Amino acid sequence: MKRDALTKWYGRNATRCIRAEFDFQPAGRRRVEAAFDAGRVSSDGGLLLLRELTKSSGVFRRFASCFRDHRDPSRIEHTVEELLAQRVLGLLCGYEDLNDHDTLRDDALLALAVGKADPTGEQRKRERDRGHALAGKSTLNRLELATPSVAGDERYKKISYDDHAIQRLFVDTFLAAHAEPPAEIVLDLDATDDPVHGQQEGRFFHGFYDGYCYLPLYVFCGDFLLGAALNTANEQPASHAVEELERIVAQILARWPGARIIVRGDSGFCRDDIMRWCEDNGLFFVLGLQKNSRLIAEIDDDMNEARAIAERTGKNARVFKDFRYETNRSWSCERRVIGKAEYTTDKENPRFVATNLSCDEYDARGLYEDLYCARGDMENRIKEQQLGLFADRTSAHTLRANQLRLWLSSVAYMILNELRRIALASTELAHAQVSTIRTRLLKIGAIVTTSVRRICVSLSSVFPFQHVWWRALDNLRRAHS
Questions:
Q1: What is the mean pLDDT of residues 365-387?
Q2: Under a CB-based contact definition with an 8 Å cutoff, are residues 445 and 48 in contact?
Q3: How far is CA 338 from CA 317, 320, 328, 341, 365, in A?
């Protein structure tokens, strides 16, 4: 090709021209060269484990049943179930952007995990996707722009979803994980900031977080995610808490009518409507209470005692007080409050908790240290969701599209938690974070070869966690046998 013609060609194809070979520093007298020419090699061999789990549990089938597909079946290449599986599995493997899927659509191992009968796409070269086994970014984007099901919208909205069915899916998974109903469960409420960096719908400035953001509300029970609602920052985190609790508690009690339920949260949820709802419905609550001058005065003698102990021992000291308290206007009745008078050798650190649990069941110290402080573990679950599974990737324009993205991330968390609970039980990764599991279990080099009779996956021979990988597979097979 002549230079002028070559220059014109590069000008036209600049956005899709990728360098074929790379040179590196030599190794002695040998040249070191590299190229992306190995063929169908996947960096996510752990997808085989995820496939084993999702196929056995039917999670993608149940998730897809929450959607309605109004497309002509004769004109589509990818079902809703396959699109959802591709998007969620991509999040689990660390691919947060839809743009990534324009390359991932040729990953045979991802296609196998999604459920494609032809994971290499060789049989589809003459079809519309021209040999690509999976969907590209545009098709996945249309899925994310689906809207809640509304009668008569089939002409304009090709895919819609039932938001109530998606919300029930998380609680159903939690209930199904228990062979016997537990005597007591604790529901943790918390909200966090989800920064927005564009002109998304529902964009508001939040003074505490010093930025424009959403405020998603999460409900967890231990490691299980029960609810994830994307709220705007112009409302208090507790504004929709009763609505979420009504839905979740009703679903739990319908299956476990005798279960004792404790609602736990920080001071942002110590609102009279939440406490009154718990009291009226036979639930218990343990909620942080924001300090004020009246509360601090109530534990003044206890703080002096704690200071004296700290100065004498040179260590932090805590003294607890159990008393009755009622606000001047916002509370409808008097309630039990636990005051923690703590002195940390150089400053006072008072804290307060409101509860309707009896003194006979929990003394002041036990309620604060053993029950209330345990809520801190929920923050680790939220970090997994936000940082490890990209729940904060809410860059779509509409609020409903960002809510659907949050649910996709939540389903990814649900699957990984099942992997941790079932497959990784009694292994060194049984309590590992999302990012650790991804790095040590899912990111394995794999070569995929196909023939008429079989699909062969060759995993890296020097993978250092082979023993955990085989143990996880064995646990999955025994659990679903």
A1: 93
A2: no
A3: 16, 7, 18, 10, 8
